[in-house]
Automatic annotation (TrEMBL):
Pfam families: PEP-utilizers, PPDK_N. This is Pyruvate, phosphate dikinase. Residues 89-288, 300-350 form the Pyruvate phosphate dikinase AMP/ATP-binding domain. Keywords: Kinase, Pyruvate, Transferase. Residues 424-503 form the PEP-utilising enzyme mobile domain. It comes from Craterilacuibacter sinensis. It comes from the Bacteria. GO terms for molecular function: ATP binding; kinase activity; pyruvate, phosphate dikinase activity.
Length: 548
């Protein structure tokens, strides 16, 4: 679409196959953030992407400077692309406000959904959609997220209000009147915690949300992640304002996150979690349990997702991590990026992509160059189903391997015990990225809730940690510093074994064995010997070849 000649530098519009005033901006992951850059690539491939406005990374140092341009140029252009009017009482455009650093930082920065909903715009959205449950649910979510991210209200305040109404039910089972009542309770909570009313002016919501996402670049967990991975603090984040699509619009709607190949084993084929009648944060936030392909995704959307996965792998020449929403049977893609994976998956994916002709031998060598023999081994229980082995619970594996270690219940305890030389497993109610510093020193992660694709599980997999999520029969009692599995009590400091191969939580220390993946090692050696025949330097390491 055409944008006026005064289109501001470092602002970008993603709408269909075209982009606004490219000559005025840095069209690169460094300038517009990797998330927006890849979103633009998907749009140019003809994939279903909601229109988005991107505020470049340069504004991280002075976010207030972007606000006048957002009002005068950015939002009017997005309104034209999306066919709605932000803040309008009859045809309100709602937006998400998302972060987007030049390098993927899963779950370390903030996101706000449903921005633009207020008492004035609710009626227009009700008329537009005819779906009161979705509208009041979206409003409830906005107040809670805005309260937490922007105003600093502990999320537990809103969760307690929800629990009082839900009485043990899933939030998705609440009807519109219950969601409407929760909105009023949330608004009262916001006022009592901050001394101010929740902002009823959509423009004020948007400006505060944008500033909060820019600020999240500086929060503790983001700084810890950058330090852990040697990332430059100065690169900053972009902010993406995108037309909302609603996964909470009913049973033919939902939100999903997944990979174009299994990130644990490397096996080809979609590997994803999907939650019906939900929004994206329900899947990645670590507080909900989501299911895989069997969870009721419309078949036509699954077919479209499979086709998109194949196209994106060939375009980006790598396994992809996707976020998507289904709204009333229509698929929308919200993000793609190179997927984080285990060492074994890294090797198999590179080898398979080469054999499929997606990448050449040099690329496969580069992607597997620094893998060690230890990363290409499976750790498993020495004796399965031993009579003395006490299985406490079942959980969903989010990584590979088995580990026996001492239980710790928070990140501070994990750091303290690890500094004393102990091997620890971090046990939490939710799979949350706030625990990043504890996860860094732990050998494993076990959670009551969360999904395989929760941001914390993604980070754990990247760090090579054993990870089990969704252990629903476990209770974490922080007051008593203990875990309960039915009548069985495990105190902090006791030992647990996490078996991600069998999805088991086992009491005590188990005997473990490590087995090399001989088939994978053989394939890698053939790749590297081929490089040697081609004249490249090659050294053998523990029965396999390593290229330098």
């Amino acid at each position: 679409m055409k944008i006026d000649t005064q289109w501001p530098q470092h602002f970008y519009l993603i709408a269909g196959r075209t982009s606004a005033q490219e000559e005025k901006g840095d069209i690169s992951p460094q300038g517009m953030g990797a998330k927006a850059y890849n979103l633009r690539e998907m749009a140019n491939l003809g994939l279903p992407v909601p229109p988005a406005l991107v505020i470049g990374t340069t504004y991280t140092a002075n976010p207030d400077a972007c606000l006048p341009l957002l009002a005068t140029h950015g939002m009017p252009a997005l309104e034209v692309a999306a066919g709605g009017i932000f803040g309008d009482e009859r045809r309100p455009l709602l937006v998400s406000v998302r972060s987007g650093a030049p390098v993927s930082m899963p779950g370390m920065l903030e996101t706000l959904l449903n921005v633009g909903l207020c008492d004035r715009t609710v009626s227009g959205l009700l008329r537009q959609t005819g779906n009161p449950r979705m509208v009041w649910d979206a409003y409830r979510r906005l107040v809670a997220t805005f309260g937490s991210v922007v105003a600093g209200i502990p999320a537990a305040h809103f969760e307690r209000l929800t629990e009082d109404v839900a009485q043990g039910r899933d939030e998705r089972q609440l009807d519109f009147s219950e969601h409407r009542a929760l909105v009023r309770s949330y608004l009262d909570c916001f006022l009592s915690c901050t001394g101010q009313d929740f902002p009823q002016e959509p423009q004020a919501q948007l400006h505060q949300a944008v500033l909060a996402v820019f600020r999240s670049w500086h929060q503790a967990k983001a700084q810890a992640y950058r330090k852990m991975h040697g990332l430059d603090d100065g690169m900053g984040t972009a902010v993406m304002v995108q037309q909302m699509v609603f996964g909470n619009a009913g049973l033919r709607s939902g939100a999903g996150v997944g990979f174009t190949r299994n990130p644990v084993t490397g096996v080809p084929g979609l590997w994803f979690d999907y939650l019906r009648n939900a929004q994206g944060e329900d899947v990645v936030g670590g507080r909900r349990r989501a299911l895989g392909q069997e969870a009721g995704m419309p078949p036509e959307c699954l077919t479209q997702l499979e086709e998109a996965a194949r196209l994106l792998e060939r375009h980006f020449q790598d396994m992809q991590d996707l976020e998507f929403t289904v709204e009333e049977g229509c698929l929308y893609l919200l993000q793609t990026r190179a997927g984080k994976r285990s060492g074994i998956a890294r090797a198999r994916i590179a080898l398979d992509l080469q054999e499929e002709g997606v990448i050449d031998r040099d690329a496969a060598l580069a992607q597997t160059r620094d893998l060690t023999a230890g990363e290409l081994s499976h750790t498993r229980l020495a004796v399965k189903d031993a009579p003395a082995m006490q299985v406490l619970a079942r959980a969903t594996p989010a990584s590979a391997g088995v580990v026996s270690a001492e239980v710790v219940l928070d990140a501070d305890s994990a750091r303290r015990r690890a500094a004393a030389g102990a091997m620890v497993v971090l046990v939490r109610a939710d799979a949350e990225t706030d625990d990043i510093e504890g996860l860094q020193v732990a050998a494993g992660l076990l959670t009551c809730r969360g999904a395989r694709t929760s941001h914390a599980a993604v980070v754990a997999r990247q760090l090579g940690k054993v990870c089990l999520v969704g252990c629903e029969t476990m209770q974490v009692d922080l007051a008593l510093r203990e875990l309960r599995f039915g009548n069985q009590v495990i105190a902090e400091g006791a030992y647990l074994t996490l078996d991600a191969e069998g999805g088991q939580v086992i009491s005590g220390v188990a005997e473990l064995v490590e087995e090399p993946d001989l088939q994978l090692l053989s394939r890698l050696q053939a790749l590297r010997l081929g490089a040697e025949d081609a004249g490249e330097g090659c050294i053998r390491v523990a029965g396999w070849a390593r290229v330098d």
